[in-house]
Write a structure and sequence with these properties.
Organism (chain A): SAR86 cluster bacterium SAR86A
Distance between the termini of chain A: 99 Å
GO biological process, one term (chain A): regulation of cell shape
Largest sheet of chain B: none
Protein name (chain A): Cell shape-determining protein MreC
Number of domains of chain A: 2
Family (chain A): Belongs to the MreC family.
Radius of gyration of chain A: 39 Å
CATH topology of the largest domain in chain A: Thrombin, subunit H
Number of strands of chain A: 12
Radius of gyration of chain B: 15 Å
Order of helices and strands of chain A: HHHHHEHEEEEEEEEEEE
Number of helices of chain A: 6
Number of strands of chain B: 0
Oligomer: heterodimer
Shape of chain A: rod-shaped
Helix content of chain A: 25-40%
CATH class of the largest domain in chain A: Mainly Beta
Keywords (chain A): Cell shape, Membrane, Transmembrane, Transmembrane helix
Chain lengths: 278, 158
């Protein structure tokens, strides 16, 4: 559709408007008549941009800073937790130095040389299914070594701050740990008097191991709540570490008695473990 | 009506801002790109109805205000551009794209020339004027080519 060209009347209006514009231009160039309007607009522009920035960009920046700060605190918290867990492991070894080290001077060497890290390998939990742990016979978990003593740790004893939890049985991709409660696990135990020895097997139930012995060989009676320690036989677990308390005694037949021992260690207690090979 | 006006104002502010961002880089190459003027000229050219002198004047005055130049500078030039485009609106239909591009390029360089006279008289540069003319014509041709190959870009209703 064709557009109308300006009529003479419109041309006059164009002329007048342009004339008015030129007048304004002349006025603005030669006088300060419009400075008030310009300054007012500039101040409006500055204040509105300030307000916009304050209530939009600054808020987002602040939010982002807050998230970063929280993230940083969370990382720091995690790092501190790891350090704390590690110190618990160190304390665990120091408090049982006679059990862990046959050569007692080695602990002094470690303390003096500030070489706790070199006394055992530090491992982190990689995979563990607590549901399987609470229901089934096969109690395994996988750990990853984060600080190594450069020793072969296969068949090394794995412990956390609560006590010994199992042994390394496989090192294909990650280290597989067979927990004491696994039905295939076996740990030599002794009582506090040292007049009774037996091999305790995993019960398949979390927190419990069982020890079966012949009454014909071991005549002494046991009391509920009696403490059991690792005997150190077999060379895998250190000697004299408290393993658990006697929970129940069951006479299976005339010659066989089954002791159920409740473990004091808990593999779910922390994600950091120590692995030591004697 | 109100929505359309707000949209136009917003577009003007946006284009003015883009021009403000581009200007320092282009001036080093002796180029002045009057993007707001070109955009408004294009709007007047594409518009189905004539843009009256008052509307063009007010728009120019608003651009003077937001771009912090002398009042009346853009107002007069926009008004003049509106007069030219309205006068030759039907004649443009007979022109080729190239001719229309040259018209817009030359009108942009006229804008640059007047602007230089008004706000930069003591440093008036023919080199800047000449380079700007070439650049503006080439830019208009590029936009025309784009509109031929990508019609959806220029067929949008403002």
């Amino acid at each position: 559709m064709a557009r109308n060209t300006p009529t003479p009347g419109q041309k006059i209006s164009y002329f007048l408007v342009i004339l008015f514009g030129v007048f304004i231009l002349y006025l603005d160039i030669n006088t300060n008549t419009f400075n008030g309007i310009k300054n007012g607009f500039s101040s409006f522009k500055i204040s509105s941009s300030y307000l916009l920035k304050k209530y939009s960009i600054d808020q987002i920046t602040e939010l982002s800073r807050l998230f970063k700060s929280k993230d940083y605190l969370s990382k720091e918290n995690k790092m501190l937790k790891e350090q704390l867990d590690k110190s618990y492991l160190d304390n665990f070894i120091i408090s049982r130095e006679k059990s862990f080290f046959y050569d007692h001077s080695s602990l002094n060497k470690i303390i003096n040389g500030n070489k706790f890290i070199e006394s055992y390998s530090l491992a982190k939990l990689k995979s563990f299914n607590p549901n399987i742990f609470n229901c089934c016979d096969k109690h395994r978990m996988y750990i990853e070594i984060i600080q190594n003593t450069n020793k072969d740790i296969k068949e090394g004893a794995v412990f956390n701050e609560t006590g010994i939890i199992g042994q390394v049985v496989n090192n294909k991709s990650f280290y597989e740990v067979m927990l004491l409660t696994d039905t295939k696990s076996s740990i030599p135990l002794t009582n506090s008097k040292g007049d009774f020895y037996c091999n305790a097997s995993g019960s398949g139930a979390s927190d419990y191991i069982t020890c079966s012995y012949s009454q014909l060989v071991w005549l002494d009676d046991h009391e509920l709540g009696e403490k059991f320690f690792s005997s150190g036989l077999g060379g895998i677990y250190p000697k004299g570490i408290e393993i658990g308390n006697l929970e129940s005694i069951k006479i299976v037949d005339t010659s066989t008695t089954l002791l159920t021992i409740k473990l004091i260690s808990n593999p779910l207690h922390s994600n950091l473990f120590g692995v030591i090979k004697l | 009506m109100m929505y359309s006006l707000l949209k136009k104002l917003f577009l003007i502010i946006f284009i003015c801002y883009v021009e403000y961002i581009l200007a320092p880089g282009l001036i080093k190459l002796n180029i002045v790109l009057p993007l707001t003027f070109l955009a408004y000229s294009f709007y007047m050219y594409r518009s189905k109805n004539n843009i009256g002198p008052v509307e063009a004047f007010c728009t120019g005055l608003f651009i003077d205000l937001i771009s912090n130049t002398f009042f009346g500078h853009n107002a007069v030039l926009f008004c003049f551009a509106s007069y030219l485009i309205n006068t030759y609106a039907n004649a443009f239909k007979l022109f080729s794209y190239l001719q229309v591009c040259i018209f817009f390029g030359v009108s942009a360089s006229a804008y640059v020339g007047f602007t230089q006279i008004i706000i930069n008289l003591y440093n008036f540069s023919y080199l800047t004027l000449f380079v700007s003319t070439l650049f503006n014509i080439l830019l208009c041709i590029s936009i025309a080519i784009l509109s031929v190959y990508f019609p959806s870009l220029t067929n949008r209703k403002i």
